[in-house]
Amino acid sequence: MDVVLMVRNAGAMTDYSTQLSVIPAGRRVSRELALCRPGNVFIADGNHGAVAVNHKGFMHVDVLWQSSNLVLITFPPSARVFKQERRFQSVIVNYGN
Q1: Residue 1 class from Cβ within 10 Å (0-12 exposed, 13-18 middle, 19+ buried)?
Q2: Cα 64 to chain centroid, rounded
Q3: CB 3.0–4.6 Å: which of 16, 40, 48, 74 could bond 96 by disulfide?
Q4: What is the pLDDT of residues 42-69, one digit of tens each?
């Protein structure tokens, strides 16, 4: 499995959101579909400026595969989280700040 990290901009009245999806490894079609859909495991934004984002709108997020079916996602504690799934298919997702 792979993790795709993406940023979304829903318009002038909203913050950029950082999103992650778990997808089958090595499949270009899966990666392209993931980029067209909301993140399937994690969605958060900068909480109205409480979290710094880069020039592309990404907040700092670390993704660390701890084994073939266990991933650790670390993100700023001040982020406003909208989605935080603990599992996607056979992959267990842990979070840290």
Answers
A1: middle
A2: 12
A3: 74
A4: 999 999 899 998 888 889 999 999 999 9
